[in-house]
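Re: the pair you flagged

First of the two:
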Amino acid sequence: MNTAVHLSSIEKIEKYDQGQEYFNTIVHFLESEECHSMKLSGLERELEKKGRELMRILLQEYLDKLSPNICEQPVRGSDEVERPKARLHERHIETVFGTVSSDRTGYGNKGVDSLHPLDAELNLPPERYSLELRRRVAENAAKNSFDETVDTINKTTGGHIPKRQVEELTQRAAQDFDAFYETRQHNPDDKAPTGPIVVITADGKGVVMHRQDLRKATRKAAEKRKNQMKTRLSKGEKKSQKRMATVAAVYTIDEFARTPEDLLPKDDSKPHKEKEKSPAPEQKRVWASLEKSAAEVIDSAFSEASHRDPEQEKKWVALVDGENNQIRLLKRMAKERGIALTLIVDIIHVIEYLWKAGRAFHPESGPDLEQWVQHRLRKILIGKAGLMAGGMRRSATLRKLTDQQREPVDDCATYLKNKAPYLRYDLYLSNGFPIATGVIEGACRHLVKDRMDITGAKWRLTSAEAVLRLRALRSSNDFDEYWIFHEACEYKRNHQNRYADGEVPHTKSPQFSSKGCHLKIIQGGKM
């Protein structure tokens, strides 16, 4: 038995004689004087390069063994036309190891496109670049500029892709984003228990765009605007126009009951209690879109939340920064779906308004300003936002502040009064709800700003949307699962849909089969 296994292994090695020969050259290199004089870092680089070339040779030999791969049953396209004429067609494939070629059999007939069953078996894309190389491009383009992606691919793989193709491949890599999440919603497979609160949160972040890709109203305003000077912007003038990306996040979380005192700075004169650690968001999904409207993104957020809680057994919370359109959309969609949604305005935005208003009374930083802010924050946290709004207005009047001086006071008071229905922090804290939008603020920074706000960058809509989708997949820890889904979609798009009844005929290679080849092949051109 052992002898038979050994002989079988020898036979396989003989089939890959070029790879074996190149492997021997690597071994000889390791025994050479040149290698012994190298530092470890140089040796690592040289071995990586040679190892990549070895993998390329082995892959090429494997593809050579597959050729010509004959179909023993008829090849019929989705147009129901049989393709009996067989010709060898050569194609080049750019892989992570380098360029390889494949001589595969194409089946054709007059007036119809040829079909290549071997391409389907290998799930080769129609263009030159392999799916694995495309995955490397997608991951890098999500993190870095397209120029850096080109450089990274050149340095870390044997493949070479020009910048324009990198942008195109990035767009193709992201095309199944919506279908992936729709499919996952309809086929939930994660039964792990999650916290009793499901949170929806949304915000907006501007991205500098080419003028033709601005939204209609913004584009018209940009076309009408004329700057006073050609070489420098005047006060109030804008250098560029932005298109708003709507950013959304959905997650579940455990209840975490607190009191207003738990959120306020501690009094140093009193003994401190060890602060209880707040629960972390669970199964957080974040995403952003420039292409879709705010209504479409928020509707998707409701769909995602419904996937987490289809029976509406959890408590639903929506965290917002106070933007009126978002509040209207959330209330309308919750009503349409019959969801009891608690809307909460982020406490951080309230605090920022308080600090600006406080400086109207205490321009200098110090204990007086700090105490003014903390006193009113405490009152707001116990549910007295409306009372604080009226009180600060009266204080501004009694102190005879000018219109300019009291402007931040009036802004804060108006904000507190208008958002009062969503500032019931005493109730939210006792119910264990989150009251800060840290998740969505972080998503705006990480998803959008860190990548899209590169100095000098001006985006086209298709590329920007693709990059945002790929970044969202990575941030939500869904990229690997998505890529499996994407490759399956590629197979269906590029191959399965082109055959009758969606069935790709199996092929056999004479070099891997003992039955031999019974179909005469006519040498054809490249395709």
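Second of the two:
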Amino acid sequence: MSEPRRWTPETLLDLRFVSDTQISPDGRTVAFVYSWIEEFTHSDGVCRPGYRSAIHTVPVEGGTPHRKTYATTGRDAAPRWSPDGRKLAFLSTRDGAIFQLFLLDLDRGGEAQQLTNLAYGVAEVHWRHDSQALVFISRGDKNKEHKRVEKLRDEKIIERLPFKFDGVGYLQPEYANLWMVELGQPPRQLSAEEYDHSDPMWSPDGSEIAFVTVSRAELEHTRQADVYVFNVASGESRRLTSTAGPAYHPTWSPDGTQLVYIGHNNHTGNASNEALWGVSRSGGDARLLSAGFEYGLENSVATDSRLGRFPQRPIWRADGVYFIATAAARTRLYRYSDGEISQLTPDDAPSISGFTCAEGYTAFTGSTQTQPDAVYVREPGGQLRLLFDPNAELLETLETLPSEHFSYTAHDELDLEGWVLKPAAMQAGQRYPLILYIHGGPHSAYGHSFFHEFQMLAAAGFGVLYVNPRGGTGYGQDFRALVRQDFGGDDYRDLMRAIDVALEWDWVDPQRLGVAGGSYGGYMVNWIISHTDRFAAANTQRCLSNLMSFFGTSDIGPYFGEDEFGGKPWADISKFIDRSPIRYVDKISTPLLIIHADEDHRCPAEQAEQLYTALKVLEQPVRFVRFPREGHELSRSGEPLHRIARIEYILDWFGHYLHSDDLTPADQFRRTVAGDWRAKE
């Protein structure tokens, strides 16, 4: 047997991805989305690698997955079983760049039937109980004249906030509303309000549809939203909740008299944990069901090897409400019943990214630190079984290194935890460079999930240190709120304390420390190198540098900035300026690689531009790499060649400053396709 090869930037092309597990109503079959990377000609006429996906199924009892959709172009996604189990609805871009709704008749077989052809496409599909109709979300259609005029009047008229969103771009004037398609009939619009609707779900009797929207236009730029129900016969909506925060994923009780949903009352602002709430179908005060449960009801464990959508809506069965939550760096399955919450997956189980339930079985996708997402099933008795690992053969050919867990205490005795991935082929008595990698959020977490980039850095001879400083998820509500209005404060001390601990390890070279991170992690990189010179090199990605301008240019700037930074910038400028790394840019001497995306609306490119310009004026070592056609998710779901190139730039930068390799000239990068360049021997 040949020696296993090491992870490289190009091994990204070999990864396979699974997402959106959906178990059939009889509990016998799991449908899921299988995604891969292949080369094809894109809409701009250039042939390059891109993502493809198809719907697959696998028996709950085990066996070989079977491909159900065979489009030659585009991506198939979001499989949804009809309640009678005889049909499978799904979304596809096979006929263009926009997702449309298709139907696969499992009894007849053959080609899928296209149900919609709307200019703005389709999202969030849910079946009616009789398997004869579906509700979905769409911004609607355009007639021929509309399309003609749109090409001539291409200026943007902006009158709403937010007016853009990362991954979407500038928002259209049309709002996302409820639509319905009855089988054999054309789709028709149900609601026509000037608020975006989301999360539709039919009531068990098929007379009403639960959904989420804001109650007033002035709340659009906040996270505040409520649960509504739409009466199909009358065409009228009524509000069930009156929240002070967000609401997600309304779910009907089996008898249709109650709903549960996930949300919070904004008690600690953006740092509030997502909780389980209940409300009567007839309205009234919502009830907090998960009181005393200290963990947010979501998957917040970070990874760069997850692609697609992952269902997190609570599921109400006869024995209780099933949900997932992130606790202590792992996302687990729980059940609420009669006022009690039970943990249903063990502490050492794969971390769950999305799930569904039927007939006592739970199907989910989950990952570990050495295995990307795979498809699992939890049996009625509680046993877990692996159904399908799309990367099993690949992992057998690659040297995948395990992380080592460690705990430490902060300056104020707060308990913290982290992991270290040691360099490949370490030799006793030798010292190696170490890179501190900081997660985004800040209300996110590292934990039991796979990172292609971390494996690649370790394979290239770097140690990778990643920890969960205060402010992250999975350690209770109080812990999560500690970073709020204190960016660059005790969170900075937590990270520096982690470096102090690492320097006690005999293999770490104190002269060859690096630091990297994206989003909030990019902010922390900028803050760290403007407040200490202990790092030999740094890499900031999709960063924040100026909290003042972030408030007005980010898609989440108003609500995030006011809550996390402590008010509106014009009311107290000092709060924003004093915690902006750009304020201290003249203190930066650490060589810095800046990576940003042109279409990042979460942390706009102007944040990177300000930082780069200042450092160039100050004649400090800096390189600025920008990626076209990409948003905030570049490192996780950007174009494959862009993701590979991004890693190459990081390898090159840290290879130069931490390994003493030659720094590759910009012209050399321009003359080679991403993936052609190899690290120097």
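The chain has 13 helices and 38 strands.

-B.
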